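thought: user wants a sequence for this fold. calling inverse folding tool.
action: design(structure=
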């Protein structure tokens, strides 16, 4: 039993270490706070992919008095629970591929930037124009300005064994 307790404590310590490391990347002032707008990026970097509604709920739980920032002391226990309970898992590669194939009506193996922008800003959890510009900059083929989705799927998913 003592061995199991030690293992559990080791897992929790490891989770705390990962969360602190991700948090510190965005702690510009080195004062254990981050801008509330960085929460989604921190969560993505930890392999969690909440919906916008889930994100708003989390912000409501951890934001300091609606002041626009999050303190590590409040974030750490909430995010630890999220990671230990495996909430907001990434979408598996095969499901992501199927989603792209549904959007690629002509079965060309790519999407045009305008097409993807239309889907991503008008359906489901809509992306902002700024988010779309960042995504297209990262994923569109530089020469042909097309999104070859099979090439980018590995960049959009995270190995659960990490």
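)
observation: tool returned 162 residues.
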């Amino acid at each position: 039993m003592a061995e199991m307790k030690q293992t559990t404590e080791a897992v929790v310590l490891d989770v705390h270490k990962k969360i602190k490391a991700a948090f510190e990347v965005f702690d510009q002032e080195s004062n254990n706070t981050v801008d509330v707008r960085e929460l989604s990026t921190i969560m993505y970097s930890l392999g969690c992919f909440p919906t916008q509604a889930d994100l708003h709920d989390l912000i409501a739980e951890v934001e300091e008095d609606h002041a626009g920032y999050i303190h590590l002391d409040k974030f750490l226990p909430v995010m630890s629970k999220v990671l230990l309970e495996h909430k907001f898992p990434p979408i598996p590669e095969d499901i992501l591929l199927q989603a792209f194939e549904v959007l690629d009506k002509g079965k060309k193996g790519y999407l045009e930037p305008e097409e993807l922008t239309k889907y991503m800003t008008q359906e489901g959890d809509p992306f902002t124009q700024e988010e779309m510009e960042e995504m297209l900059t990262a994923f569109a083929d530089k020469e042909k300005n097309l999104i070859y989705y099979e090439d980018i799927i590995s960049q959009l998913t995270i190995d659960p064994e990490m």
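thought: summarizing for user.
answer: Here is the designed sequence. The longest strand covers residues 33-35.
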